[in-house]
């Protein structure tokens, strides 16, 4: 039988010590349901240290990424109040920092099912997520990345706007003033709202309610790129303003 707590401890130690580990699936029999059990054990360890849940992040929200990973559904991870980044972020505490632009939803009321998702949107914004796989070489299988909380590390959100159509928002990510990635929010399941509904579905299946004040990172509209020390990143969304961060 797979030792969920031992795997959670291995992932927690990798993050704490900033030292990558081999993929869990190299030595453990790990399917996706068990991987989510590991993920939630990791989160419970963070909560035991005083962190509070702050939202959800979605992964594999592009068709290309689903094909690459051989899956037909999105994955999700949990965000805590220790993950928001300020105007700068210490990348020396991360193993493989990569950054990507996001569409972000602010939840205004409890969401217990996908049918409640659309009406619960209190605000929308552009943001970014900094990913950090805890595995050697940023290499993983589907159960590995699920167990690793979908590579969640840091995130930030730009100015909030009243709910609006975000199905085709042009997104630009610049590093040190030069374009690094650009795309449309349509790459996120055709419409980021579909990702929010998927978050509600997956959360409900795990017995989790999406709470007022939580954020949902709908998924990447472009590929993630490495975030080197001293880099200055600006992410902008058409009509949504921008958000910036400097790696230190």
Automatic annotation (TrEMBL):
Signal peptide as annotated in the record: none
UniProt keyword annotations, A-Z: Hydrolase, Lyase
Top-level taxonomic group: Bacteria
InterPro entries, per the entry: Fumarylacetoacetase-like_C, Fumarylacetoacetase_C_sf, Hydratase-Decarb/MhpD_sf
Keyword Metal-binding: no
Pfam families: FAA_hydrolase
Annotated protein name in UniProt: Fumarylacetoacetate hydrolase family protein
Record-level Gene Ontology MF annotations: hydrolase activity
All copies of domain Fumarylacetoacetase-like C-terminal, residue ranges: 97-245
